Amino acid sequence: MTEAATRRPMLDADLSAPDGRDASALHTLASSVAGAPGAEGAARRGPFRPDVWRNARQRHASRLAAHYFRSLDVLAVTAVTLLSAWAAASGPLLHAPLSHVLPFGLGAVTVLGLLRSLGRYRFARGQKTLLHLASVTAIVLTGSAVALGSGWAMLGPATPWAAYLAWAGLVLVTLTALHIGWSDIVARWRASGALTPNIVLVGATRHAEALIREALKRRDLNVLGIFDDRLARSPRAIQGVPVLGTADDLLTHRMTPYVDRIVLAIDPKAEARVRDLTARLRTLPNEVSLVIEPRDEVETRTALNRLAAAPLADVQGPVDDDRRAFNKRVQDLIFGLTALVLLFPVMAGVALAIRMDSPGPIFFRQRRHGFNHEEIVVWKFRSMKQEAADATASRQVTHDDDRITRVGKFIRKTSLDELPQLLNVITGEMSLVGPRPHAIGMKTGHVESARLVAEYAHRHRIKPGMTGWAAIHGSRGPLHTAQDVRRRVQLDIDYVENQSFWLDLWIMAVTLPVLLGDRAAVR
Question: Most buried pick, 47, 88, 191, 456, via CB within 10 A?
């Protein structure tokens, strides 16, 4: 199996249940297909019906748990090490001789380094908890040997053996308790399907049938549906998995936010068709793979092993998309919570002003596109008259718009209306920095904005943000022309491809002066 046109999205979020309406709709669809001719009841026993429906953002949050596990391990081992070194010192730790403190530090670094380098945060499918704990014990013993050896080398007969052994015992107990918890969490996620990849197949072919038949036996892969341009000669279902429409239908299907990977199950020798489908599907933020026809069951199983592989994110090696997503999530939580606390008096003042200025609710909620086409509810302070609220953004805001209230003009000009989106950031639906979330069905002129630029969906490969690269370059607010849409999409794609911690800090630092200094923009 080889992969073509692979694009790995960068994401993260909380582990709450997905939108109930979407999930129930998918369950209904699954039930209806189960009774379809030719389905043979296979849809009732999988792989089409996972126990838990989680969108791609939520499953990626589960993958990132490895980084959270390691961070907590680092904090716990550091705390135990400092406590042990303080207890062994004859006075304040800062005044203790380096030779008395360094062995504890070397032992801790050894333990944490081996946990990371030996892949103790992968929690691979089928891994036994007892074997995992045994490996953790061996790692702690190695760290203990380093602490004891370095202590003897530095202190000789004066080595505090009891202190080093007490440190080793505390580290072993702490890490054992933590890793029992990590193993239990991952096991429950696997049992519920939170780590089980969701795929759709393009092509109702014998390749697809072979993959689905093997997936039914394994039950470690959810095949949500099949799409094929040749509907006239396609069955209604293959082994219980429904044929849901054409490749073009996949571009706008409500199932798309739940899909981790799109698999082209067509003959790779049909090069023109492969190129055509790849070009059409590349507008989606999902990964796209091409399945080469397996020659036997061994190759079929190998292909499925690669599709079904759902380990936690790798915490070793160079910085990758998962590492960047974890760093971005930590950044969002720290800065987002801090901003929420510091700006609470300002938000309370804005809420009071809105209440006194015009009748209606304080907040305005609007469904917008999030990561991977997920629909999220974005919070804002209400800036328009209640009777003129435009939840679909079918009419773009203009200068002297008669729908905007007196307070609304001020909070839109200063972007104070966006502050409630800190709640979206904390819950993981948005980020502090990213492409601005557009309203579902937003129009530029009389045309839906998403239809004006082929690469429009690429801006959904990362979570939307309160501010972003486009915003500090003047592309914010309504989009009145196709050129406006193209410029914003290009700026958003530039950010997605170059996102980093330092770039995010720069964007946040210049956002306020840029917004306040731009008096011409319509917001």
Answer: 47
Give the tens place of pLDDT for each residue, 278-316: 777 877 777 777 765 555 566 666 666 666 655 555 555
**Cα separation, 284 vs 81, whole angstroms:** 48
- What interhelical angle do 98-117 and 129-155 show, nearest 10? 150
- Residues 372 and 285: beta-carbon distance below 8 Å: yes
Extract the tokens encoding 362. 């304080």
Buried-state track 84-96, b at ≥16 Cβ within 10 A, e below 16: bbeebbeeeeeee
Q: Is 297 exposed, middle or buried (0-12, 13-18, 19+ CB in 10 A)?
A: exposed
How many other C-beta atoms can be found within 10 angstroms of the C-beta atom of residue 49? 21
Task: Give the rounded distance of the alpha carbon of 162 from its chain centre.
Answer: 46
Letter string b/e over residues 30-45, b meaning 16 or more CB atoms within 10 A of that residue's CB: beebbeeeebeebbee
Look at the alpha carbons of 368, 372, 373, 376 in this order and tell me if their dihedral is positive or negative.
negative
